[in-house]
Amino acid sequence: MLLAPIKGNKRMSLIFYILATLAVVSALGVVFARNPINSVLLLISTFLTIAGQYILLNAQFLAVVHIIVYMGAIMVLFVFVIMLLNLNKDKEPYKKLLSKVAAVISSGILLLVLLASVAKVSLATPAATLSPNMGLVKNIGLVLFRDYLFPFETASILFLGAMVGAVVLGKREPKKA
Amino acid sequence: MEKIISVIQVVPIEHYIVLSLILFCIGIMGVLFRKNAIVILMSVELMLNSINLLLAAFSAYHADPSGQIFVFFIMVVAAAEVAVGLSILVTMKRNNDSVDIDLLNRLKG
Any idea of the CA torsion for A137, A139, A141, A143, to the nearest 10 degrees? Predict the structure, then answer.
């Protein structure tokens, strides 16, 4: 791929590769960690590296929302549920070695197939020049409330449904006398 | 002041595709590998995030903010999914005293 020599591009690509390596390593840790709380902590570090990728991509709004939603809401929910259910290494369900090996092999084969199909695709260099403030709240808000207003309102109904569903599911069923 | 350059002009888009494919397949491996329902939910989150990263990368590649809006909506759906999934998990733990996903096999016909 032909790239115009731009000052500082070596540093940027170095940051990308460091973040990518960290993301893959901690994602593997999520799967292989024995204790669920270690899985949660490694998942947080994966999400932090993805937030770093968003900042590199000039998607500042997404990076902030990602940190607020995932680290602020979802991860706290996970940690609370692990704490409430008192999960630890001793309560880990037993799984046969054969099915674990089968899981690794099948996902590896899927990765190979997907990579092979990507290798066939030839993408040109980015044609459009990127405006540096595309990912700022102002521009994203303009697009969101002008072109995607209806999906935005539908998302609020989805949230209402999820909220009601979570409360109904979490409520203790009344004892039948 | 130095001109702000985007990483998309430095790192080829193929590397973003490869990174998110690897993360997606690790998520699939987590779903198949573990029996603990909470780790399976985390692996689903990992898969959603890999797709988010790819959408953001293509959004920067085409200089089109619509991709970032899609990422926003996927985050909304992920938050709703986690809330419902974790409450199902709490109910499951209360009824079966376990988070083993294989106990939930009564739905098969």
Answer: -150
Q: State pTM to two decimals.
A: 0.88
Q: Which CATH fold topology does B7-97 show?
A: Helix Hairpins (1.10.287)
| Residues B25, A111: C-beta atoms closer than 8 Å | yes
Q: Which residue of B has its CA nearest to A142?
A: B65
Q: Kindly provide the ipTM of the predicted complex, given to two decimals.
A: 0.88
* Residue pLDDT, tens place only, B37-85: 899 999 999 999 999 999 999 888 888 888 899 999 999 999 999 999 9
Q: Is A82 on the interface with B (CB under 8 A)?
A: yes
CA distance A50 to B49: 8
Question: A160: domain range?
Answer: 136-172
Q: Best mutation site among B15, B17, B24, B76 for testing chain A: the one with the most A CBs within 10 Å? A: B76
Provide the 10 A C-beta neighbour count for residue A64.
15
